Amino acid sequence: GAATAPDAVPEAEWQPGSGVRLINPLGSMADAYAGTGLAFTNYVHGFNAILDYIMTSGGLKATRTLPGVDEEALKPEGGLPCACHPSDHLSIAADLELV
């Protein structure tokens, strides 16, 4: 059969940048790096932000994450990429536990 389109978000619930209701079949998601103090995963040309995420749900919990990089260590290099970090995005990783 033909696929059906998801219900549109009622106009009263619109937010900037929204308009499509996304439903995750796995339920609510959690950011593995929440509460770790990770300041950025991208640091280029005066811009830095977290652009990369590891999301978990259900019976998975992050027990350890790869630490971020200190901004002061990147300033002499001019940001990313650099000799120590050859991408414009920093690596992120998490050990996950089934709970």
- Biggest sheet layout: 2 strands, antiparallel
* N-C termini distance: 38 Å
Strand order of the largest sheet: 1-4
Total beta strand runs: 6
> What order do the helices and strands follow?
EEEEEHE
Discrete helix count: 1
Radius of gyration: 18 Å
Poorly predicted spans? none
Secondary-structure content class = mainly beta
Mean pLDDT: 86
Helix content estimate = under 10%
Quick structural gist:
This protein is mainly beta. It is 4% helix and 23% strand.
What does this structure look like?
The protein is mostly beta strands. It is 4% helix and 23% strand. The protein has a two-stranded antiparallel sheet with strand order 1-4. A two-stranded antiparallel ribbon has the order 2-3. A two-stranded antiparallel sheet has the order 5-6. The radius of gyration is 18 Å and the shape is flat. The mean pLDDT is 86.
Q: Which short descriptors sum up this protein?
A:
23% strand, two-stranded antiparallel ribbon, mainly beta, 1 helix, 99 residues, two-stranded antiparallel sheet
Write the layout of secondary structure elements.
Elements: E1 29-31, E2 42-44, E3 47-49, E4 55-57, E5 60-65, H1 71-74, E6 94-98
Antiparallel strand pairs: 1-4, 2-3, 5-6
